[in-house]
Amino acid sequence: MKKILFVVTSHSEKGGTGEKTGYYLGEVSHPWDVLHTAGYEIDFVSPKGGKAPVDAFDMNDSINKKFWDNDIYRHKIENTKKPNEVNPDDYVAIHYAGGHGAMWDFADNTEIAAIAREIYENNGVVSAVCHGPAGLVNIKLSDGSYLVDGKKVNAFTNEEEIKVNLEDVVPFLLEDQLTARGAIFEKSAPFTKHVVTDQRLVTGQNPQSASSVGKAALKELQRRSKNAK
Fold first, then answer.
1. 71-128 pLDDT, tens per residue?
2. Residues 134, 181: contact at Cβ < 8 Å?
3. Which long-range contacts (C-beta less than 8 Å, at least 24 apart) are formed by 185-190?
4. Is 130 annotated in the active site?
5. Interior angle at CA 190, CA 187 and CA 193, nearest 5
6. What is the rounded CA–CA span in Å between residue 219 and residue 205?
7. For residues 96 and 28, what is the distance between their CA atoms, to the nearest angstrom?
8. Is residue 161 among the annotated active site residues?
9. Is the full-model pTM beyond 0.90?
10. Backbone dihedral region of 215: left (phi > 0), alpha (psi from -120 to 50 degrees) or beta?
11. 3, 88 in Cβ contact below 8 A?
12. What single DSSP character describes residue 137?
């Protein structure tokens, strides 16, 4: 069983600014490239299902182009599963891709949170990058504790949100919310690569960290399968 579930946003606008957003293409394509190359099949789910809105559509990025030109995966991300169509037992990992849209529809999605909890409690890996960790803030484990409580975590930082002038547009600040849930928040300077792994939870700070999140998740999966033998 070598399937991984990627979560992408269904939300296409940055609050009331009139600016479009969605999932950040590189935060899907770069982890996808690492994990797909390693032999994993990837499925996509979004809060509403169907075609997911895309942001940062940069075809000069060769990995973005590789993903977008792959007919199978292009079809998958333009026809994402609805949460009620997902069986958590089918997956060894779940990855939350970022993009500002995630700030509006990840945190309060109880269905996807339940899927992530089941995957994690089945000894699976949970990863998230940039704004993807918005999906982590309300995940509670079966014992009632928050998934991130007491774990090292990172995500798009307060400083980064201020630098893109969206600190008053997003519904909450990710760094603050994760810290409030008990996470031990780590970070580097704005827009520099930073990835942290703690107890099968892998998080990356920004788009620059996307490929490294894929590599860290793969390392955790390899450790998992080695321990299972």
1. 999 999 999 999 999 999 999 999 999 999 999 999 999 999 999 999 999 999 999 9
2. no
3. 185/153, 185/154, 185/155, 186/152, 186/153, 186/154, 187/154, 187/157, 187/159, 190/157, 190/159, 190/160, 190/163
4. yes
5. 65
6. 18
7. 9
8. yes
9. yes
10. alpha
11. no
12. T
226 pLDDT above the threshold of 90:
no
Q: C-alpha angle 167/140/80, rounded to 5°?
A: 70
pLDDT in tens, 29-80: 999 999 999 999 999 999 999 999 999 999 999 999 999 999 999 999 999 9
From the list 27, 161, 175, 220, the catalytic residue is 161
Q: How confident is the model at residue 229 (pLDDT cuts 50, 70, 90)?
A: low
Catalytic residue among 30, 131, 175, 194: 131
Q: Is 76 helix (H, G, I), strand (E, B) or coil?
A: helix
Which amino acid is it at 102? A
Among the listed residues 170, 56, 160, the one whose alpha carbon sits nearest the alpha carbon of residue 107 = 170
Radius of gyration of the chain (CA): 16
Q: Which of 11, 36, 130, 194 is catalytic?
A: 130
DSSP assigned state of 82? P
Helices 210-228 and 25-37 meet at what angle, rounded to 10? 30
